[in-house]
Amino acid sequence: MSDSTASAPATATASGRLAWIDTAKGIAITLVVLFHSTLYLGLAGAVGPLTVLNPLLDTFRMPLFFFMSGVLGARAVALPYRGLFQRRLVLLLWLYVVWVIAQQLYMQAMPPISPGAAPDSWWHLIDFLVIPNPNLWFIYALPIFFTVAWLTRRLPPVIPLAVAALVAVGFGTGFLHTGTAWDKMGRYFVFFLLALLIGDWVRSVAPRATWWHALAVTAVYAVTVAAAVKFQLLHVPFVLLGLGILAVVVGIAVSVVLARWRGFGILARLGSRTLPIYLVHTFPMIAVAAVIVATGVVIPSVVAAVVPILLCAASIAIALAVYTPLRDVPGIFTVPVASWATSSTTPARRQPDAVR
């Protein structure tokens, strides 16, 4: 496709949203759902090729997701903290509490999701404020990231960025380790801060990407990841960080190109609904894993190569089907009181989005 044939949706939609940003978010949330699909099926014993590939995508999905969060949140950090809290944080904090409790009660009611697994502990209903939920840690992390960024906003940007990079290296090498989602938060905060710093520049430069830019950086990324795996370099200092930065470049370039093709508009639509997908998608996966364990069914490896993809698609469809009739019910996908998320400088948001 030449630049002259690129269609208008490459830059903006009718609603004024940037289509390539929504496409990038759509790619990221799809990879997150696929990760959990493979994970839950693996816990139930349905192991396939994606089980091996999944860890490698760690270098792609969350760096891209947090970077896009920073691109979209850069201007909010300039607000007074009250405005930042009401515009960005209160919704995420509320939904984290509500959906962690819902997920924990659901897990308690379901049969085991892996052979020989001990019953899920009720203690997780209490400790989720200190130990981030392994499924919902992303919306736990964002309020913390925004707050730290706001507190350090008057420092020279290189200082918090350098500290965040060192923290990312510490967690990436295993030198820092908690065995919880705090490890992932430590690895990915740097991408959020980097986006806050260069977000406006990225918005202006990214639309110039062409298909050959996307192809070139994708090839470099693939070769680099393959080499890092082959020579066991993933835990060498700065390797994961470098791969994550390269992945962000790939994600943006590919998203700009795909946003020009109407056939990939579904990615932009998913990207405009990341939060409900993120909140709901693990529920059907838990149910499927529980059924597999309860029935003792054995899924052949050939079938296990396809099942995670089908479960990923079904879980996204179910999440959107749940969201559509419930999106305006107070407290489910929104705050229960509209004024909580309203200030003199920011209107209430009716349609939640995890990274806008």
TrEMBL record:
Pfam family of the protein (one): Acyl_transf_3
InterPro entries: Acyl_transf_3_dom (IPR002656)
Compartments reported by the entry: Cell membrane
Keyword Signal: no
Keywords, in A-Z order: Acyltransferase, Cell membrane, Membrane, Transferase, Transmembrane, Transmembrane helix
Membrane topology value: Multi-pass membrane protein
Transmembrane segments: 27-48, 60-78, 90-109, 129-151, 158-179, 185-202, 209-229, 235-258, 278-299, 305-323
Main localization (coarse): membrane
Domain Acyltransferase: 19-318
GO molecular function, one term: acyltransferase activity
Entry similarity comment: Belongs to the acyltransferase 3 family.
Name of the protein in question: Acyltransferase family protein
Organism name: Leifsonia stereocauli
